Amino acid sequence: MNLRKNIGWWIVGLFFIVPYLNLFRLDIQGGHYYWMTKRLSFDQPLPLLLTILLLVFLVIGLSTFRARLFCSTLCPHNTVSKALRALEKRRLDKPVAVVLTPLIAFTLISYFDEPRLALHGILYGQSPMALAFFVVLCLFLGSLLWKLRSKFCQNVCPYGFLQHLFTPDNPTRVAKIGVATLLLLLAVAMTVAALSTSASEVSFKQVSRVETGSTITYVYNLGLTNNNATTAEHFTIKFAPDAPQPIGLDVHDAIEVGPGATKVVTFALRTARLVTVQFEVCTEHEGTCKPFNVTLSN
């Protein structure tokens, strides 16, 4: 019993610390998400999708091993509700619920926004959306912790309905092995995808096209983003030797981009004929290269 209680409180503790340590959270405004402190772009969605799939199948699949295992041991709401019921005799349940409500509401918001920006937006009213979500969450969570508590689990919680739909009454040993194998494969795939996904982003965009006599000059912006939170990255740009060389860009020098920063490099390509320019942008620490092909026409 003590082990079950401890696991429940460990889950509650993880709920509170995960977004603030960037172990896993979304940054919707910034267009990124964090996986074990590694910042990745939404353009690299595989680790995020696999993580969500693993969490969904884990919650649903746990009931294959033991009925209501998630509800009785792992559900944070159930753990907190039991603690509040234990405080009823001392009449401390409602004061504690009042304190917990805004803390839980803000933590939930922090899973989808940068915590410091969200806090600043809520306190000073500079983010109406964050403030609105905070108020709605406080009202909803307040009703859960103040009065509903276990009644929510018994009558409203959708997990019980899903468990009834997807979990057989008497799961066989083969079913348990199948669920365990699926969860293990998802965990391995998630880890491999996250570790192998580059923490660097490269964007390429044409800015302008200027005609000068018989030649045309194309101007481009090359965006270099280093999603690593602790280490600077050096980008090297390599053009094919037989292609037009960039104007305003020294390809012999590596471009340093600080941790979590983005640097935009502007250069031009000039041509008097139809030509395809090939170049690649390589990273020093990760050792990855991203190729580009651009067709210039007169």
UniProtKB/TrEMBL annotation:
Keywords: Membrane, Transmembrane, Transmembrane helix. Pfam families: Fer4_5. The chain crosses the membrane at residues 7-26, 46-65, 95-112, 124-146, 174-195. Residues 50-94, 132-166 form the 4Fe-4S ferredoxin-type domain. InterPro entries: 4Fe4S_Fe-S-bd. This is 4Fe-4S binding protein. It comes from Tumebacillus amylolyticus. The lineage of its organism: Bacteria, Bacillati, Bacillota, Bacilli, Bacillales.
